[in-house]
Design a protein that fits this description.
Phosphatase 2c, domain 1; five-stranded antiparallel β-sheet; 34% helix
């Protein structure tokens, strides 16, 4: 069923990538996913000696998701599979800390998106389960593209983009720079404390509410193609405006996922001071999974 796949997770360069991706394919269905571990707020809970808390949590969701798909992928929709994987990772977390209390803002968290393509009578059913700032694009035929938006929305980082713009203009003024960095840290902590709280933002974490998991489904008569992106990979479209999602989907099968990431890193390399495109991180972990489904041969 799977004709072509491009996948990879690329570190920002400052530390090992806290993103994970994967896929499972057989002759009836294809599952693909991206998991973006959210960089933690100090102090770390030190869940594993060789991984950050964010990386550990992303890896646990990845392990349980792969297992759930292998065991139940044929009968369960993407939202059920993803919810079960998050719940299982959260159980691992509670066991690891022996169910002791932990401040909500210190909990590990991750953005996630899972796509399931299943052959059915008259075409293909494509379902997306998502939570956080991962996104995707689906093509169901010529001129028929669907953007699978993140559940956080385009305004989620606007206040921090504004702070990043102020930071980029400090131009050697260390006192002003220190003040803005302190303000950024304060606001990041304030926002993290709203994680999965009323009036806050929803994301995969040990305190998550499964009802916040987003789900979309599409029917395609023709064999579909799709791409899933972490927010670091989506920068190419959302922040740098180098192309549209539809153009990126075409491009990834010509130059590969590494080719798209190379474009992102080239833009960032020429804007190391973050003045052209204000951002808190000069570079971010970037992860892409793109796939094409082959025509069914009877």
């Amino acid at each position: 069923m799977l004709k072509q796949i491009q996948s990879g997770s690329y570190s920002s360069g400052n530390q090992p990538s806290e993103d994970v991706c994967g896929y499972v394919a057989d002759n009836k269905s294809v599952h693909a996913w991206v998991i973006d571990g959210a960089t933690g707020i100090s102090p770390s809970l030190m869940l594993a000696p060789d991984h950050s808390d964010a990386e550990w949590y992303a890896l646990r969701i990845n392990w349980h998701l792969h297992r759930a798909i292998v065991c139940h992928g044929g009968s369960h929709d993407s939202d059920m599979l993803l919810a079960s994987a998050i719940d299982a990772a959260n159980a691992d977390f509670r066991a690891l800390i022996n169910d002791r209390e932990a401040d909500a803002h210190l909990l590990p968290s991750a953005s996630v998106i899972l796509a399931k393509v299943q052959r059915q009578s008259g075409g293909y059913l494509v379902g997306f389960a998502k939570l956080g700032d991962c996104c995707g694009v689906l093509r169901t035929g010529p001129g028929q593209a669907h953007i699978v938006e993140s559940t956080l929305g385009p305004s989620f980082d606007l206040e921090f983009d504004a702070l990043a713009a102020r930071l980029a203009q400090t131009d050697g003024d260390s006192e002003r720079r220190s003040a803005i960095l302190a303000e950024i840290s304060r606001r990041l902590l304030v926002r993290r404390k709203t994680m999965n709280q009323p009036g806050g933002y929803a994301i995969a974490a040990p305190n998550w509410d499964s009802s916040t998991l987003g789900f979309e489904s599409f029917h395609s008569i023709e064999p579909p193609s799709l791409m899933l992106l972490s927010d670091g990979a989506a920068r190419l479209v959302e922040k740098y405006r180098a192309c549209t999602y539809e153009e990126a989907l075409d491009e990834v099968f010509r130059i590969g996922g590494v080719g798209l990431i190379r474009k992102i890193r080239e833009i960032e390399r020429h804007d190391r001071t973050c003045q052209s495109w204000p951002r808190l991180k000069t570079s971010d972990d970037a992860t892409i999974v793109a796939l094409q489904v082959g025509a069914h041969v009877r």
